[in-house]
Amino acid sequence: MSHGTFLTDLRALIAADVAASNALQTRIAQLEDDLAAGKSLPDKKVDLMERSNKDIVRDLVARLESIEGSANLTATDREMMQALNARLAVCDLLAMRLAKLRDLEFQARGTQEFLEVEALPASRSKSKSTAKPHEEDVEPLLRPATPEDRNAKQAEEDEGADEELPTSHDTAEDDEEVQAESDEEAEPDKSTWPLLYQIIDVDPRTEDGDFKQACDLSLKRLARKNNPKFLPNDADASRRWAAVIKAHETLIDPERKRFYDMRNKTPVDLEGFDLSSLRIE
What InterPro entries does the entry give (predicted)? Predict the structure, then answer.
């Protein structure tokens, strides 16, 4: 295939990607309007859109890797790489909107489920209050304590008081073990981590099987100090939270994580990000 044919095909693929991204943006906007109007979303709707966005990202990453693998990059190659990176930035924005949409959906459904659960105890307590109690259930509560009952209770209290307390020798050994464990688990030097790992506050050496869970837990923890939903008077919260979402969305996607680890290139929309402004508990 000639370079001109490859370039034509690549432009056609980018045009198709633009159309798919625009269609996805339209669907996201419609669902945002539906949620704002109090409507419930169809099951798996957000999941399907996230999958579609990830498919687009996967294709863009493959195209970028194909061009970067060339022995000699031409000016046209660099132009196409710039266009592909611009499309990746659009996909990242869509991923952030989908994450926000999922958050809104969770809030809407969570509130409804909470109201339904709250209604259950009231109905149960009402049925219990109208039911006639059985005599055998009430009798033990009304019967006065006998001398045997009092003696048994006293014996239990004496037995608890006689339990052996830890000696100073045992305490010293425990302290030594705790100190040894703390020395083994020394705080890693986070300044050596790539930027996205520093933002999401997850060690890049985390095992693959535990990595996504670690990112999800860190996202919830970071939300307390950076999510503008919880900080309405913090003007900088939106910028910090956008960076956190960007890091999370990139690193939990295996293809994008692999691409980032390989290039270790800061995403365009995070260039110049002040890491010290991020509030990490």
Answer: J_dom_sf
User: What is the spatial distance between Cα 125 and Cα 80, in angstroms, rounded to a whole number?
Assistant: 68
244 HSE (CA, 13 A, CB side): 28
Domains, the chain: 3-127 (1.20.58), 191-277 (1.10.287.110)
Q: CB of 194 within 8 A of CB of 204?
A: yes
How far is 272 from 164, CA to CA, in rounded Å?
Answer: 60
* 109 vs 63: CA distance, rounded Å: 39
DSSP assignment letter at 276: G
- When pLDDT is averaged across residues 171-196 and rounded to a whole number, the result is 71
Q: Which helix (H) or strand (E) holds 28?
A: helix 3-36
Chain segment 196-208, per-residue pLDDT in tens: 999 999 999 999 9
| Contact in structure between 90 and 21 (CB atoms under 8 Å) | yes
Q: Cβ contacts of residue 240 below 8 Å, gap of 6+?
A: 226, 277, 278, 279
pLDDT band at 37 (very low <50, low <70, confident <90, very high): confident
Task: State whether the Cα torsion 93-96-98-101 is positive or negative.
Answer: negative
- Asked whether residue 40 carries a pLDDT value surpassing 50, the answer given is yes
Q: Give the CA distances from residue 250 to residues 69, 159, 256, in Å, rounded to whole numbers and listed in that order.
A: 22, 58, 6
C-alpha to C-alpha distance for 149 and 82, rounded to whole angstroms: 84
Which of 132-136, 193-197, 245-249 is predicted with the least confidence, judged by mean pLDDT? 132-136
The amino acid that residue 104 corresponds to is L
